[in-house]
Amino acid sequence: MAQALVKHLAALRMEVEHLDGRTSIEPYCGGVFTIFGHGNVAGLGEALAAERDHLRTYRAHNEQTMTHAAIAFAKAQFRQRIMAVSTSIGPGATNMVTAAAVAHVNRLPVLLLPGDVFATRRPDPVLQQIESFGQGDVSASDCFRPVTRYFDRLTRPEHILTALPRAIQTMTDPANCGPACLSLPQDVQAMAFDCPEDFLNPGVLRFRRPPADERELANAIALLRGAKCPLIVAGGGVLYSQAWVALRAFVETHGVPVVESHGGKSSLPWDHPLNLGAIGVDGVSWANEMAREADVVFAVGTRLQDFTTGSHALFPQAQLLSLNVQPYDAGKWSGTALVADARVGLGQLETGLAGWAADAAWTDRAKQQAAAANARITELTTNVPKDMLPYDAEVIGAVRDSATELGLDSGQHDVALCAAGTLPAELHKLWRASLPGNYHMEYGYSCMGYEVAGGLGVKMARPDQESIVLVGDGSYMMANSELATSVMLGQKIIVVVLDNRGYGCIQRLQTATGSPAFNNLLDDCVPEGGERSSIDFAMHARSMGADAVHVKDVAELKAAMVKARQARRTQVIVIDTTHTRTTDGGCWWEVAIPEVSGRAGVREAHERYTQAQRLQRL
Ligand SMILES: Cc1ncc(C[n+]2csc(CCOP(=O)(O)OP(=O)(O)O)c2C)c(N)n1
Ligand SMILES: [Mg+2]
């Protein structure tokens, strides 16, 4: 059975569309990350060994992070190609559950192949079997059920004939796309069955592009035709549908400004005159200002999560039109739904929008706002030496500008990657991406520990680009061992560690909600008899085979980045940073404040909280 699985995977081909619109037929599965144990080494492991020349196997250091790498690979390829991830049973499998949730939230495909306990149950309980007293058919793999879009336990070998095609179908369905899990009892992996020849020669895969329903299209056109001050919120769906050319044409034809969610950033080049940049809690003030005034918000391919909508208080005045391939998203917030592929839907709208444009004054103002925002971003990201440590904005500027020294355009060349902490807000506002996918932010699950492994996945997907991981000290500490994998695989990444000695963003949130600073910064966490933490990140990175340097300021950082870009192996640059952040922009975000507290600060925060809630669209 495992042999049939691997042969099918190795034979799968996908019609892949490239950035320039060219298409080519590529292997669908970019390889298999696996950590072996008794649950997969003899069955799947033997099958992988036999197919090594057709399907690469990669060993990693942790099941969660190797899955992050696989997820990042798929995201960087706009979901058109995947990787498979195989684990043993028990801890190997459950280590992967968090990553499954990352893929689930972000609607990203990954084929999860955890080992499972014996289907025959003959040797039960095996090492690492959890044993449920009340449910005979439960195993550790059941943890995947709520965080996968397709789950199957293959208790007979011929199940692979239906289960694998269904898993592939799920991952190549634009609406349902997400992680698929085939849990593989170790005895079943090793069983023989009569496999039809055609299972080993599957046809070429394509993403389908569903068009809009006629009535929904007519409603959407009517709504837009009545709009004077429309605003497009571009989400990740624009990228996954590869709808950037259609979006740009739509925007320019109708004079509609665009704001970008984390998932949608890089839908338009940063310097497009109608790109206002980041919206929401991490948004630039110029974008949020126009969101507050728009009469129609046209959401394209976005989940409308709270960071995008300011917990539903940023644009409650606007009518909402939602173009999304997934009805669940299109129907959010009681908006007018337009269920379709983003690219196809934008094209279909044109059939009824001839002659319609936003008010000229609105479009002109958007252009002025976009220009003002970009000038301010230059200011914020240009380091002015002073008597204090630099902060994230200056680091971002130095990383970007180090490309210029080598005659490169950072916006074109670099993929910036991050997931959690202070940096997502800074990067959302300040990073400049000229090409789709050059901003790679996992801000669906915002999973600390995605960063280093994600950088590896991006490099494997986009070998000609620089994969630059910007990461806080906290996230680096949570998961960094795939740094050694990147060295071993010769997949160079550049990791910039911003060390502010703790969970800076959470401490900010803590004090903003009235609590005392507590249990976040390392220096606040040393009990009596404990020891002040001092982590030498550069030494740590060197111990894993990376080249690493601890720079003392932004000028040194820039010089180190120039060298890092020229280097061939993985580079880690560590810089001490302060807790300041960009105060421009942003908007309210709902975080629940205690109704009762002995602290005046909490009571005041609660008062502000209830005031702010009044602006929410319910
Ligand atoms: C796995 C996981 N655990 C907890 C959190 C909550 N969280 C978000 S950011 C953060 C601190 C990040 O610290 P660091 O990476 O140093 O970034 P900083 O805010 O200091 O810049 C925490 C604990 C999370 N996002 N992911
Ligand atoms: Mg930190």
TrEMBL record:
One of its GO terms (biological process) is inositol catabolic process. InterPro entries: DHS-like_NAD/FAD-binding_dom, Myo_inos_IolD, THDP-binding, Thiamin_PyroP_enz_cen_dom, Thiamin_PyroP_enz_TPP-bd_dom, TPP-bd_CS, TPP_enz, TPP_enzyme_TPP-bd. Keywords: Thiamine pyrophosphate. Transmembrane segments: none annotated. Residues 420-574 form the Thiamine pyrophosphate enzyme TPP-binding domain. Pfam families: TPP_enzyme_C, TPP_enzyme_M, TPP_enzyme_N. Residues 32-128 form the Thiamine pyrophosphate enzyme N-terminal TPP-binding domain. One of its GO terms (molecular function) is flavin adenine dinucleotide binding. Belongs to the TPP enzyme family. This is Thiamine pyrophosphate protein central region.
